[in-house]
Specification:
By secondary structure, this protein is an alpha+beta fold. It has two helices and four strands. The chain has helices at residues 21-27, 59-72, and strands spanning 8-11, 14-17, 36-42, 45-51.
């Protein structure tokens, strides 16, 4: 999917973003599903990421999981 640009809109005095249907379909989510807004850094740039999980595992988590799978074999 990559990067999509969205505009912050006014919704009863609060900021709101409208997620395009195309993005919802690519993520496999629909109206009523839960998404998490996660602060991440890409290099030194602070970004907000929409995720279906409350946390994005870092590369260390992936390496430990791989190590655990290999150890159990």
């Amino acid at each position: 999917m990559g990067t999509k640009q969205v505009t912050i809109e006014d919704w009863d005095g609060d900021g709101a973003i409208r997620i395009p249907d195309e993005a919802l379909q690519e993520l496999g989510i629909d109206v009523g599903d839960t998404l998490y807004v996660i602060e991440e850094y890409v290099g030194t740039t602070r970004c907000l990421v929409l995720s279906k999980t409350p946390r994005i595992p870092d590369r260390t988590d992936d390496l430990v999981a791989q190590w655990d799978r290999n150890r159990d074999e």
